[in-house]
Amino acid sequence: MGFSKDNLKGVLLALLSSGFIGASFIIKKKGLRKAAAASGVRAGYGGYSYLLEPLWWVGFITMIVGEIANFVAYAFAPAVLVTPLGALSIIVSAVLAHFILKERLHRLGVLGCVMCISGSVIIVIHAPQEHSITSVLEIWSMATQPAFLLYVGSVIVLVFILVFHFVPQCGHTNVLVFTGICSLMGSLSVMSVKALGTALKLTFEGKNQLIYPETWFFMLVVATCVITQMNYLNKALDTFNTAVVSPIYYVMFTTLAIIASVIMFKDWDDQSGAAIISEICGFIVVLCGTIILHSTREFDRSSSFRGSYIPVSPSLSARLCNGNGELLKHEEENGSPSEEICLRRPELY
Questions:
Q1: Is the torsion defined by CA of 235, 236, 240, 246 positive or negative?
Q2: Cα→Cα distances 166→15, 173, 174, 286, 324, Å
Q3: Transmembrane region positions (predicted)?
Q4: In this structure, which of 81, 229, 248, 337 has its CB flanked by the most CB atoms within 10 Å?
């Protein structure tokens, strides 16, 4: 099956998106650190002081630019092609974290990066063509089919269980809780973004889709899902190491988004068994790459998985950190990462 121009546009936009989103993780993390050091209230514990931190807003704007590129990419290419390319943001995040956040990337991590790139290439080569859609009503028909409604119902139930049962019990000790909420809501946001992007594309082509209430419904779903994701992603980034959050979020989010797309848009219906198997193999290679990349990153497992650190008082924290939120030189020379002392106290993308 030939590689269409629409697919090419989607790939290029997805690559651009990965670059911006990968960088946004690091910039926002720096902003969260500075805000927590200045206010004494961490975002992971309900604090919102990061909203007053300019660096966090720079990261937020960077992410928005990446998400806009990603949004447009979904209007040109199928989700099973665009979504897995998000693995490249993991590479960007890993490299920048190595140099900026001092979250060390070991040599074996290069293998993980290469595997992510190789798997992405395989997916691109064997990706299905975008289905021709002439109206948002066609997408609405896909969204209201029994199989997809069952998927949506399952996602909503799981999200409520995670938010009201697991977050209070183990949200700050198990990285899967916050990332699970983000990923589940993210799979719905991808489908809504795909629908909304297609509607806007058709509108710009002269086929006005804004006259249909379905278009505005998809817009509402996008806004709801994105706000929820942002809220809990901030919690995950502030509570756990970036080396933990980025790969796990990517794996869960991408897997769920592909499942949702296959159910709703039936991306694999017109593909041969060999092409589908190639895509799955490419995705598995990408997953393995992210696992290797994650396993070779240096992080404090006690704070990332067990959450066993003891909160310190604001007065003690003030003595350990200077006015810029950085560790005193003595602590830096001893190799203590800043978030281990400055951010070990309570304060939700």
A1: negative
A2: 35, 10, 9, 29, 35
A3: 12-27, 55-76, 82-101, 108-128, 148-168, 175-196, 216-233, 245-265, 271-293
A4: 81
Four-residue CA torsion sign, 311, 313, 314, 319: negative
Q: Give the orientation angle of helix 87-96 with respect to helix 5-39, to 10 degrees.
A: 40
Select from 275, 12, 4 the least CA-distant residue to 130: 4
- Evaluate whether 303 touches 241 at the Cβ level (below 8 Å): yes
What are the structure tokens assigned to 314, written together? Answer: 């604001």
Rounded Cα gap, residues 31 and 247, in angstroms = 21
102 contacts 109 by C-beta, under 8 angstroms = no
Whole-number pLDDT of residue 239 = 85
Segments making up each domain of the chain, as ranges: 1-129, 133-269
Pairwise CA distance, residues 171 & 169, whole Å: 6
Residue 223 has pLDDT above 50, yes or no: yes
CA distances from 126 to 84, 90, 130, 151 (A): 13, 22, 13, 26
Decide if pLDDT at 173 tops 70.
yes
Alpha-carbon separation of residue 327 from 35, 78, 135, 239 (angstroms) = 14, 46, 57, 19
As a whole number, mean pLDDT of residues 101-109 equals 73
- Quickly list DSSP for 257-302: HHHHHHHHT-TTTTS-HHHHHHHHHHHHHHHHHHHHHHHTB---HI
pTM of the predicted structure, to 2 decimals: 0.69
pLDDT of residue 310: 36
Q: What is the mean pLDDT of residues 115-130?
A: 85
Task: Please name the residues in contact with 167: beta carbons below 8 A apart, sequence gap of 6 or more.
Answer: 177, 178, 181
Neighbours of 161 (CB within 10 A): 13
pLDDT in tens, 8-18: 888 999 999 98
Tell me if residue 105 falls in helix, strand or coil: strand
Q: Which two tokens stand for residue 105?
A: 């990337």
